[in-house]
Amino acid sequence: MPSKKLEFKNGQFVVYPTQGVGKVARVEEHNVAGQKIQMIVINFEQSNMTLRVPLDRAEISGLRPLVSPKKMDEAISSAKRAAGAKRMVWARRAAVYEENINSGDPMKLAEVVRDLQRRSSADTMTFSGRQLYMRALERMAQEFAILHKIDVDSASEKIEDILGVPKEIDLNAPEEEIEPESP
User: Looking at the structure, do residues 158 and 87 belong to the same domain, yes or no?
Assistant: First the structure.
């Protein structure tokens, strides 16, 4: 079954499933075992990493252009819904969440964010649950940030605001001095 050939341009933002959002630096030709292979060179600024993906394997690897703003809005809306059923033991659920994060699919990332987000300021989260939540949120925020031309931290905050995630209490914040009332 022939697959459509993906086109990538220098400077284009793309999503590589296990790494998140990167920028195409160039397409270069390499000679491997006597064959000329075109490679897409992708720079990931946040992790300071460069990745080379054979052009003919790009689609199979999951490399894709950014989603549309409408598709991102749909993913965020799906994260507002009630959390999914938690009938599996944590180890299995964590493995499923990990697969969803590494899929690079905004809808699957939204699923992880939806299931693991705190619904009230009294909710607690295990360390591993918090780590998975933060990774899923960051992956969504990377793409959201590019689409809305803002930085990743602002994108994370905006997504959490849209979802209504309660803010953390900063236990290290200096206490405010209360001035005595004047008579």
Answer: yes
Cβ–Cβ contacts within 10 Å for residue 81, how many? 10
The residues, ordered by sequence, that sit 6+ positions from 66 with a Cβ below 8 Å of its Cβ are: 13, 14, 15, 21, 143, 146, 147
Is there a domain that residue 170 lies in?
no
Record the tokens describing residue 124, joined without a space.
Answer: 């607690």
pLDDT surpasses 50 at 2: no
How much is the pTM?
0.82
Specify whether 80 is located in the same domain as 40. Answer: no
Q: Is 183 helix (H, G, I), strand (E, B) or coil?
A: coil
Give tens-digit pLDDT for 25-84: 999 998 888 899 999 999 998 889 999 999 999 999 999 999 999 999 999 999 988 887
| CATH number for the domain that contains residue 56 | 2.40.10.170
Task: CATH number of the domain at 152, please.
Answer: 1.20.58.1290
Indicate if 46 and 108 belong to the same structural domain.
Answer: no
**Under 8 Å between Cβ of 60 and 82:** no
**What whole-number distance in Å separates Cα of residue 146 and Cα of residue 66?**
9
Q: d(Cα 84, Cα 109) in Å, to the nearest integer?
A: 13
